[in-house]
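Predict structure. Chain length: 57.
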Amino acid sequence: MDEQWLQQTLADLSQQLPQYQDRALLAVTQTYVADLAQRLVNGQGELDGRIWNHEQW
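Prediction complete.
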């Protein structure tokens, strides 16, 4: 999934919607997408660290 594309699409949609509830939902979704992307990066880093731990070879 291309996180930047999704973030931009959510921002564009948020600007087009007139109702506060819709914009708030998209804002929370943007936050969730950013948090999920960070969790993926952290998970990949943890996996790399576990694979390269020479004490467990």
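Summary: The chain has a mean pLDDT of 87.
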